[in-house]
Design the sequence.
């Protein structure tokens, strides 16, 4: 039985400290007596004491653990460790598997994407954006909704951080920011916790760093002329176009 989630889902949808602790449990062999059941996986995870853990095959954040957090219906490191075992089969994790991206960064690497790679990045961005969706539903799904926004931004952060620097990729990021802005302004996204807005601001800083690596990237910011975004994030980028002497921070 294969789970419906994969390691990327676990990594991007789990908060960083919990994921890192779960990886530690997995890599140190603390997940034992792993068994596949009907629609779920069970195991004994050695923490401060042995805990019986159950994780569903369709949602890794649904299940049960005997630890304090688990008994209070909170996703714990023991459940995440069992989910990692379910998708990895006890095999070693690579450095890339374990690499956490906490926000978008500039790779500092000059380069232009091939047509195939550009198409792949565009597809990845669209897929990640599906997690940034309108808030429709009762109050009880609020936390799950906020987790979905975080997952979308985490996935986008990883994509941005892997891009080489060029006018081509600067255009890709500006287009991405405009799409996110539309979701915030007219798409029904409830970003009251500032998750998406924070990601946009961080990506603007990445674009400012792009101009340090390749000054021609500034030309792509002209796409923002005459536009008013939801909280004025276009201003710092347009300032670079109007006053080339301004240095990126």
Sequence:
């Amino acid at each position: 039985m294969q789970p419906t989630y994969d390691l990327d889902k676990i990594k991007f949808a789990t908060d960083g400290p919990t994921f890192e602790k779960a990886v530690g449990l997995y890599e140190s062999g603390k997940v034992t007596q792993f068994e596949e059941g009907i629609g779920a996986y069970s195991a004994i995870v050695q923490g401060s004491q042995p805990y019986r853990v159950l994780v569903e095959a369709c949602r890794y954040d649904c299940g049960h653990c005997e630890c304090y957090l688990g008994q209070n219906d909170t996703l714990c490191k023991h459940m995440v460790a069992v989910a990692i075992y379910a998708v990895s089969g006890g095999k070693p994790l690579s450095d890339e598997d374990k690499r956490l991206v906490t926000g978008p960064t500039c790779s500092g690497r000059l380069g232009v994407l091939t047509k195939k790679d550009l198409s792949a990045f565009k597809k990845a961005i669209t897929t990640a954006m599906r997690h940034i969706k309108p808030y429709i539903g009762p109050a009880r799904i609020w936390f799950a909704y906020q987790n979905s926004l975080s997952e979308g931004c985490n996935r986008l952060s990883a994509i941005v951080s892997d891009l080489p620097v060029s006018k081509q990729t600067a255009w890709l990021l500006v287009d991405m920011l405009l799409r996110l802005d539309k979701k915030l302004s007219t798409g029904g996204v409830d970003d009251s916790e500032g998750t998406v807005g924070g990601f946009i601001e961080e990506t603007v800083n990445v674009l400012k760093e792009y101009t340090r690596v390749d000054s021609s990237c500034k030309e792509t910011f002209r796409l923002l002329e005459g536009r008013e975004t939801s909280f004025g994030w276009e201003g710092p980028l347009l300032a670079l176009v109007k006053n080339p002497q301004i240095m990126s921070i």
